[in-house]
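Structure ticket #2291
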Amino acid sequence: MSKDNFSASAQYNDFKGSAAADHADLSAAGDWLKKAGVINHGELLVGYEMYVSPGLSVASGTITISTSFLLATTDGLDAFAERVKSGEDISLRKVSRDLSPVEFCSLFKRFNVTLSSNGILESRDYNY
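Resolution: structure written out below.
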């Protein structure tokens, strides 16, 4: 079993920030995973990780979004949240798929990412 930390990182981390997203009304990721036969009974989608590197996509001529879905065996989000808050070790199942930008974006209703140099603007108000 491998161990990882749930945080974003790139080779140099020149830019850092945050992300927020809303479930898609018509094709939520959990539904997509069920249709693809990836999510098991009693599992809940609790996290995503996405990685884009145009250099890795040059050979095919298309951009691929490497996406990992983090699945927890749990009785629901509240039960899982209690486990996380307790500080106990968390075991997740990680399922990875390469998605096109259209496939990835269709999993969300809205998707917003903010990045600033070394994260200096994170959570700061600004005038423009």
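Closing remark: The mean pLDDT is 89.
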